[in-house]
Amino acid sequence: MTYRTRAILLVVLGATFVLAIGCGSDASTPSAETPAVNATEPAATGTLTGTQGWARVEGLRGGRYCEVLLARIVDGRLNAEVWNTYGLNDCPPDAWSALDAEAIKTEREVIAALLNGPRYWLMDAIERKPTGERQETTFGTLEMFLAATVDIGPIPPNLAPYTERKVSRGAIFEFSAGAEVYELVDPTGRVFVMQSYSRQNEPALTEDDLASLSGRIAPPEGWSYRARVLDAALRVEGKSIEATVIQDDLTNTYSLIEPN
After folding, report:
1. Measured on CA atoms in the order 88, 240, 226, 234, is the torsion positive or negative?
2. Number of C-beta neighbours around residue 258 at 10 A
3. How do residues 43-62 score in pLDDT, each as one tens digit?
4. How far apart are CA 190 and CA 257, in angstroms?
5. Whether the bond into 156 is cis, omega within 30 of 0
6. Are 201 and 250 in contact (CB under 8 A)?
7. How many domains does the chain contain in total?
8. What angle do CA 121, 127, 133 make, to 5 degrees?
9. pTM for the full model?
10. Which residue segment(s) compose the domain that 125 sits in?
């Protein structure tokens, strides 16, 4: 599998902490090996109630997590289940390095199993639309929950970074006043804010590096990268449960800030 194929399959959009609705009828149903459980929602510093009656989780920024993506072809399109460790464990390095993607692929009977991480959240809080029963499973010794099902696109998919993807997540991401945020701006002025950074391709990358990241990524012509400090809280709210997300060359993930 080429690097670019791997990179596109690692698209998560919706920053996968929140439980999402699948993009395809078959893709939204976990494999037979996946047990259904009734579980409380994972929390960082505690679960609160948002203004819309949605579950609110605070204290996410800097939180470490890892993901396993299980890819399938559904109705001629490439789909991926995204399984996430956040709230269940902090993805210990030894347990993470022990995972075997080929063994997972065979066990789960998928066309590809991809290991995505470690990654680190940049938002400060998430509010999640109430959902039903949650799905959990274990890869090796790592417990994970089904965080999203991503519709990557028709076969063959567009494998370029900075390609927009749709992720159903039913969530609001909040960046606190005074927080530094990192944004990509497209030629039309649309702004995408980084929601998580990745050490998948640059193991030494830290949050301190993000302000000067423009010299290490290559967005398309007409795009720009910037860092800024928020004067007021920034709430990234989709107009529906579906969000628009992109990834850069290093698989850092950004959400479109839609106009109110």
Report:
1. negative
2. 14
3. 445 566 666 667 888 999 99
4. 7
5. yes
6. yes
7. 1
8. 100
9. 0.77
10. 3-256
